[in-house]
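INFO  loader      accepted 1 record
INFO  loader      residues=598
INFO  predictor   begin
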Amino acid sequence: MPIYRPPLRDMQFILHEVLGVSDELQALAPHAQLDQGTIDAVLEEGGKFATEVLFPLNIGGDEEGCTLDQTTHAVSTPKGFKEAYTRYVAGGWAALSCDPAYGGQGLPMVLNQCFYEMMNSANQAWTMYPGLSHGAYECLHAHGTREQKDLYLPRLTNGEWTGTMCLTESHCGTDLGLLRTRAEPRADGSYRITGEKIFISAGEHDLASNIVHLVLARLPDAPAGSKGISLFVVPKFEPRADGSLGERNAIYCAGLEHKMGIHGNATAQLVLEGASGSLVGQPHQGLAAMFVMMNAARLGVGNQSLGLTEVAYQNALVYARERIQMRSLSGAKAKDRPADPIIVHPDVRRMLLTAKAYAEGARALSLYCALLLDKERSLPDGHLRQDCADMLALLTPIVKAFTTDNGFEATTLCQQVLGGHGYIREWGMEQHVRDARINMIYEGTNTIQALDLLGRKVLGNNGATLRKFGQLLGRLAAEEGGNGKMTEFIEPVVNLGRQMTELTTDIGLRSLQNPDEMGAAAVDYLRAAGHLVFGYFFARMAQVALRKIAAGSTDPFYPAKLQTARFYFARLFPETATLIPRARAGSGVLMDTDLALA
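INFO  predictor   done
INFO  writer      dumping C-alpha cells
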C-alpha cells in the first residue's frame, strides 16, 4: 500500500538553514514574535493532519469521484471528504495565514506553503477545495469593498464558506477577452449575471454551507476584449447582513467534467440564470483584480506538483529497496537473496534521483517565493517591497511551469520504477501521474507562462528584474570565490547566467522585427531560466551542507544534500545545452510549415 511521510527535515533545512526565515520574519512587524520552535510545531501538526486525515482518503476518493444529482443540482464528494473538511476547519487550518482582523491566525505564507505541500502530497483533489477558498479570500482582501470584506472574509477565513474562481467559458479559455457572461446593473446596486462557466474546480460540493463564486462578466457598456471585463462576487446562497443564509441564488451546477485525474474534486459546469452578484473593484478592471487570485493559484499549482513529486518519490524509493530483480552489473549485492533490489541498478537510481532533485529544487524555490510574498506585504520600506514584488512576478511563471513540467516527468519516472505494478491502480502511482498532468494545463497553460515570463517579465522591462536575480548569483559567487569546494556548484550557474543574458538580448532584438521570434523561443527560454533558478538554490544548499560538514557535523543529511546537488548538475542541468540553441533556432522552422501541416 502507498505511504507518505512529511519531509519535515528537508522543509526545516530550507526554512532555517538556507533561507533563515526566523530572522527574516522577525524583521516584519506582523511576525516579530514568531520563532523557530513555533514554526516547527505547526509543521509537525500539519504533517499529522495530512498523513492521518487526508492521505487515507486519496485512492478511495479517486475511485469514487464526485456525483451530481441532476434534479437538485447538488454534488456529493467522495466518502470521508466532508468529515475531513470538518476536521480541517475545527483545527483552525483554514485561518492559518489569514488576517487577524477577520479571525485569522496571521502566520506567514511561507509556513502556509509548507502545510499545503504536505496536503497536496496526501490528497491533491481534496486540497483544491480549501486552496481555491484561500485564493478567493486573497482577492476580496485586496479588492473587496468594506461591506464585502466584513461579510465574506470572516467566513472564508474560518472555513465556514468556500470559494471559487469562475473564468473559463466553452469558447474561451486563456483568451478571456472573448468571454460572453453578462452583468446587468439593478436599481439596488447589485447586478443580474447571466452566462455559463466550465472547468470550475470545487464549483459545487457538500463540504460547506455556502460557496463564494468570483465571476468574470461584462457590463452593458463594456469595451471589447480584456479591457471590458469586470469581477463580481456571486454566492451560492445570498447572505443576509448578519451572515446568515438567505435565498438560493440563480447559479447551479449543470454537469461535472469526466476527467483524467483529480477525480475527488468537483470540476463543475456552472450556469448563471440572472444570478445576483456585487461588483468587486472598479468596472472593467476585473481581470486585474482576479490576477490576485490567479497569481496565488499559479504558485499553488506549482506546489501541487511539488507535493506529487515528493509522494511519488517516496513510494518509488520504498519499492526500489524492496523489489528484487536481476543482479547488479558490478556483482551481486544481496548475496543471501536470489536477486538484488532494483535500487542497485544505475538507471533506477537515475529515475529516483531525478524525482528527488526536482522535489528539493522546487521546495527551495517555492518557499523562497512565499517568503518574498511575506516581505512584500510587511516590509516597512516601499522600495524594498517593490523589489520583492518584482522578483516574485519574475519567478511565478517559473514556479508554475517549470515545477509542473518536472512534476509530470518525475511522477512518470517513479511509475516506471514500479514497472508493471506502476500501471496498476492499487499501488497508487498511476494516480499521481494522472493528477500531475492537469497541473501543466490549468491556471494558464505552461506555454502561456513562458510567454508571460519572456514577453512581460523579462523583455517587458528590458531585463531589469532578471538582472536583479543575476545579482543574487553574483553575490553568491563573490562570497564563495576562494572556496574551491564550491566551484562545481557555482561555475555552471554563473556560466548559464552569462548565456541567458546574451540569449535575452538576441531574442529581444529579433522580436522587434518579428514578434513570432519571442513565441518560438519562449518555452525553451523558460525551461533554461528554470534551471538557472534551480541551479542557484542547489548551490546555496550545497554551501550550507559544506559549511556544516566543515564545522564537524556527522549528520548524513548534509553529504546526502551534496550527492543530490552533484547529480542535478551532472545529469539535469546540462539540458540547458540543448535548450539555448533551440531557443535561438528562430520562428521560421515553425511558421514556414504550411505544406508540412496541410
